[in-house]
Write a sequence for this structure.
């Protein structure tokens, strides 16, 4: 059934934690190459079978696989072998299609988080005694490059993935602007003992590892607060029913802020249910266009209802997939206002395919791929486009350094004005 199929898919920029089992092979050169070639063929087969476009977006897939195998044969480094597979997958240029390699023994930590703020990529969290801070980086610093790769919206996230999982490196060279002056810094990573393998399906933890959030943030991921008549909920992912429970805690609020900044996505089912709290009737969110079929994603009303409550949705450059879909849905239905930065533009329905090679021991790896396009009621496809907020709000370097939140302030002011309009506006 189509309905059961979409329940298995995910609207998230990255899915897939690593499966339990053996780490990547660190044996003979021949053994490593044989393993990498088998993984490359497995990845190619999964994508050929499940990628939403059976024409593979015009990529000569047989040649792409042959080129990957040639590069594997030409190197003696495991990371470069996995890099060849990664390059093959990147040819599809799809936000939700990626290779998740076997877990390697090195897990470098550099002690900072960065993301785009408008056209600049800045550090917004930093470990006080970590490698980044020791090298001289600070909150609000603008990073313009990582090992020669531009740290812009198009490249920065994959660069982090590459450093964490594809070809882990103990040294990171960053180009930073200090008071407007370019400077190059070398970061020597911490190499903590590798954690136990993460259970399959713990997507949020995997994403935290990509951004090093698990070592930098001690705050509660899901938050519910009251500021007088205005409720505030922070929804870091649409992975569990905690998103709904956050709403229940502010059920009596007369206005509401839904903070989706840094929310990289989640499941279609959670998105449907969450959106249902903001409507009094069944409302289409989007259509998921699979190979040869499509299915509507519907928000069905739930209680406690917020359908008539003034609403602001906060987004930023790391609001992706399900969070982008929700933000655009709120715009299209006129249910509220979207404030913040332009979103990531990673909007599709994806599925994760765990794979293994061998039996005992076995080597786990994974493939995530787009299985359906997300088409909105106005026939827009936001992949590579993103959601443009109704009101732009981009924190400055100074605001980040001072740990201020001007966008939340703007949201609060907007809602308070709706609840208590100026006397002139009431005439």
């Amino acid at each position: 059934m189509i309905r059961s199929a979409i329940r298995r898919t995910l609207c998230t920029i990255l899915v897939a934690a690593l499966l339990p089992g053996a780490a990547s092979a660190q044996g003979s050169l021949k053994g490593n190459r044989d393993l990498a070639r088998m993984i490359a063929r497995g990845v190619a087969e999964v994508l050929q079978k499940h990628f939403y476009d059976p024409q593979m977006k015009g990529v000569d897939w047989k040649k792409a696989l042959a080129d990957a195998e040639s590069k594997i044969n030409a190197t003696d480094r495991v990371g470069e072998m996995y890099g060849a597979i990664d390059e093959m997958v990147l040819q599809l240029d799809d936000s939700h299609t990626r290779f998740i390699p076997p877990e390697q023994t090195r897990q470098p930590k550099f002690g900072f988080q960065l993301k785009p703020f408008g056209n600049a990529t800045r550090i917004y969290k930093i470990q006080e005694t970590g490698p980044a801070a020791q090298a001289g980086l600070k909150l609000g610093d603008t990073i313009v490059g990582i090992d020669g790769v531009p740290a812009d919206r198009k490249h920065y996230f994959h660069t982090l993935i590459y450093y964490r999982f594809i070809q882990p490196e103990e040294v990171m060279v960053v180009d930073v602007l200090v008071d407007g002056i370019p400077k190059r810094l070398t970061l020597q990573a911490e190499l903590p003992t590798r954690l136990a393998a993460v259970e399959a399906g713990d997507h949020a933890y995997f994403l935290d590892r990509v951004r090093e959030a698990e070592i930098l943030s001690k705050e509660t991921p899901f938050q519910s607060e009251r500021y007088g008549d205005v409720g505030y909920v922070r929804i870091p992912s649409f992975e569990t029913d905690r998103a709904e429970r956050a709403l229940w805690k502010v059920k009596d609020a007369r206005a509401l802020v839904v903070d989706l900044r840094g929310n990289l996505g989640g499941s279609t089912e959670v998105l449907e249910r969450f959106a249902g709290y903001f409507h009094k009737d069944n409302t289409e969110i989007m259509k998921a266009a699979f190979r040869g079929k499509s299915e509507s994603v519907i928000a069905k009303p739930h209680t406690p209802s917020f359908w008539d409550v003034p609403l602001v949705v906060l987004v930023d450059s790391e609001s992706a997939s399900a969070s982008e879909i929700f933000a655009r849905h709120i715009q299209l239905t006129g249910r509220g206002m979207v404030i913040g930065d332009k979103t990531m533009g990673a909007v599709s329905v994806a599925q994760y395919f765990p794979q293994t090679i061998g039996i005992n021991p076995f080597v786990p790896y994974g493939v995530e791929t787009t299985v359906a396009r997300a088409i909105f009621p106005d026939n827009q496809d936001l992949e590579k486009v993103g959601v443009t907020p109704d009101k732009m709000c981009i924190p400055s370097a100074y605001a980040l350094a001072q740990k201020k939140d001007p966008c939340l302030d703007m949201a609060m002011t907007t809602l308070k004005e709706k609840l208590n309009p100026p006397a002139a506006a009431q005439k």
About this structure: DSSP finds 14 helices and 19 strands in the chain.
